[in-house]
Sequence to fold (352 residues):
Amino acid sequence: MKLVIDERRCKGCNLCTMICPYRIFREGTRPNDRGIVIPELDRPERCTNCRLQGLYGRRLCGVCQMICPDQAISWEEEKPYEPRKVVIEF
Amino acid sequence: MSFKDWFREDRLPHIFCTGCGNGTVINCTLEAVEEMGWIRDTTVFISGIGCSSRAPGYITTDSLHTTHGRALAFATGVKLANPRLNVVVFTGDGDLAAIGGNHFIHACRRNIDITVVCMNNMIYGMTGGQGSPCTPPGAISTTTPYGMCEPVFDLSALAVTAGANYVARWTSYHVTELTKAIKVGLDTPGFSFIEAMVQCPTAYGRRNKLRQVSDMVTYLKTHALLLQKKQRMEEEGETVPADMFAVGEFVRRDRPAMGVLK
Fold:
């Protein structure tokens, strides 16, 4: 699963930066075309829900989704990684 | 299925200000409704007037947006006309405590089977930040430019005294506890009252040195005192700080309820 912020809904209140136990959300730096500074994701693969939602079959932590007043945070399915052959150079 | 399926996607994003806690309380309520397994056709959301009362407009069920303070009167009518409906009332502190005060007391006394979620943002937000019965002492608002000089109306204590079956209070920071409390309230036959303290950075925080959303949420977090801890402090003779409010489950009892199908 992949953590996404819906840029059309986010109003930049930065509540997610306060509440995430892993501090995945960071305050953004530059405003987007609507003039809203949207939080950035810092290594979102650390999110418990991203890693284990499929295994447990339910939402696990999810406090960022619950506290987001603009319903902007959600998880998306992503394609499983395709195995790639890595060429090691000696 | 999640609570996101209950939103009217075409109406989002909503008009609440940046960092308004009302959106959080809607999330928690819809999550609780979703966990209850209720369906859209038999769930009704009713609201009065105010910021908080815009909430049913964003939910894809039948709803009533009623006159100022009369949401509980309309909810009583809906519940008694068709007791099969599940009725949830969204209301704010100005709607419920000020103009709808008598409806609130008598709805508690009658113990009708409805759930009331009160978003207490301590101010009249929509009309420009006038002082409400829940504005804390000393707070600056449009109508109290030298600081509020009246004591706060404790809505949860009022509901306990007037006879509600389930009363709880949490803040918009405590999302998990709030969701659980609302779910217990929906499950309880009889009048359930859940007071959610929410932040209002635009109308309240801006005048009270809490302009940033994080400051306002930190204020709620640090001023919330767990009910058990408050009772323990009172037993040990310590003084409870006057500006703190108790959070937790105040009462859960089984008085005879009205509007419950036999």
Observations:
- Residues 63 and 71 of chain A are 12 Å apart (CA to CA).
- Chain A touches chain B through 21 residues (CB under 8 Å).
- Chain A has a mean pLDDT of 87.
- Chain A has three helices and four strands.
